[in-house]
Amino acid sequence: MSQSYSHRAPRAVILACAASLLALPAVAAGTHGRGHAGAALHGQPGKASQASRMIEIVMHDNYFEPESVRVQAGETIRFEVRNAGDLVHEFNIGTASMHAGHREEMTMMVEHGVLMPDHLDREAARHMEKTMGHGMHNEPNSVLLEPGKSGEVVWRFPRQAEVSLEFGCNVPGHYESGMAGQFEIGGGS
Known about the structure:
Blueprint: H1 11-21, E1 44-45, E2 53-59, E3 64-65, E4 68-73, E5 76-83, E6 89-94, H2 96-111, H3 122-132, E7 142-145, E8 150-156, E9 166-168, E10 180-188
Parallel strand pairs: 2-5, 4-10
Antiparallel strand pairs: 1-8, 2-3, 5-8, 6-7, 6-9, 9-10
């Protein structure tokens, strides 16, 4: 399988974007899906026993493989996610506006020492969770993985095929460098 990755940003660009975003102020917006306008329209957590299929997602340092995923409206999918990169990455399901708000939360995680380029500081995450209510990154539409780690997201897609959903990595600088993909949602199931 031959693919051209010329549209991908070099690792130095990713790191520069991440560094520049660290200077931005951040506000916790609760944008993993709860409390966000229209959150119910982006789907809901699913049960692995009800998944119609499993899709493997591989995260590289500035792209996902595959770059788009076709699902049926109302379908439950079990995503097996693997971080094949050298940096911490996230697989997050949401709308474009949800991703934009969530990037603010991820920037806060960097500012509080939770999210490092190549690892997570779990003690800092527990402290942030205790003092601010966010920090452990335990949300059903998302998995945050260190290099070489794997995780799972089970998601039931909305019954409305016209909803525009994407998957993305909201670690500062990653989404902007190309770590985002589209869900193509077909007719109802």
